[in-house]
Amino acid sequence: MKVSGPRWDAAGGVHRLPSLDGTTGTLLACAVDVVGPDPEVALDEFAVDTVVCLMERDDLDRRFPGYVRWLDGAIGGSRAVWAPAPDHGVVRDVEAASLAADVRSRLERGTTVLLHCGAGYGRTGVLAVQVLASGTGCPGGRDLEATLAAVRTARPACGPQSDAQHEQLWRLCGDGIEGPSREGA
């Protein structure tokens, strides 16, 4: 569900993603164009406790060098997590699972977490689905297809945008099975 006003429309807006069962935390998603120009303004406007940046440094350096400096200064505290992944790509499964567990833990503590990548759809959606589908690990958590549908209802087009992202999501959250075809996804 979109929670931002017209000010953020050109950047795709900020969307509240489905709630994590039994928690008071809030999961938000957006594009870097919301956070990059002035992270403190964006985080204050949406009462964000932690921003999770999924972009690689060279992409950020070209567009928002001030944001890179902010991230460098904020890492290690509770304000930022920088977990770069290649555009349309994935990181190692163990890294992806660890990041999802970290975000889940923050939500369980009542934290508001803002996820973003370049456009706020692919890498952001994969992480959001993994967080929401997971229990103590994805198998046995929420139904993966239902979770993906709920995330896409909250932020249209959010979710895997490549075969690698789709396959990783199914490996980590689909009981290790390949999952259905991406046709119609």
Provide an overview of this structure.
With 185 residues, this protein is an alpha/beta fold. It has a single domain (22-173), classed as Protein-Tyrosine Phosphatase, Chain A. Helices cover 42% and strands 11% of the residues. The protein contains 8 helices and 5 strands; from the N terminus they run ββααβααβαβααα. The protein has helices spanning 32-35, 39-45, 57-63, 65-74, 93-108, 122-133, 144-154, 163-173; strands at 15-16, 26-31, 50-53, 80-82, 112-117. A 5-stranded mixed β-sheet has the order 1-2-5-3-4. α3 (57-63) packs across α4, α5 (93-108) crosses α6 and α6 crosses α7. The two termini are 20 Å apart. Residues 136-140 and 179-185 have low confidence and may be disordered.
